Predict the structure.
Amino acid sequence: MQLILVNKPYDMLCQFTDGAGRATLADVVPVKGVYPAGRLDRDSEGLVILTDDGRLQARIADPKHKMEKTYLAQVEGTPSADQIAQLAAGVALKDGPTLPARARQIEAPNWLWPRVPPIRARKTVPDAWIELTIREGRNRQVRRMCAAVGLPCLRLIRWRVGDWTLEGLAPGEWRKAPLPATQGKPRDPLRRA
């Protein structure tokens, strides 16, 4: 069985082929026979897990397994305690309410790579970072949750899926990974070794 962690760059499709000539995972991962376990939008960055094991792929991607995923979101505005509490309690979206999540405001990660192209910066509108851990996987869920509480998402990075993290991977880099650990607490993405 193969298990690969890749740091998907911004503006790359989370698939291996594209008839329109856009960047795909094949541009950075030369391994054949592996497929994404879940998706990450073209305008999002971060951890994508690739595997050739269909059961593991389903366990990671299928929302019924409720595997935790942690995202770091740069949002427009300064989050209030009420907005963070709304995200944590679950947000009403058009396709139904989300499950409760873990949410907190964080400092901008000092280890984070610059995005290419950079996000638009407005001198009169502040921005902030939120760490959000969800157990679902709806289409554009984190972006929709942030927007629903009045915090439009400017940049979104998936840091963790289950026990796997982005740690040590620059955009476009990948590595083989061991099977997930069943014990222990996930590493804090803001703590550096």
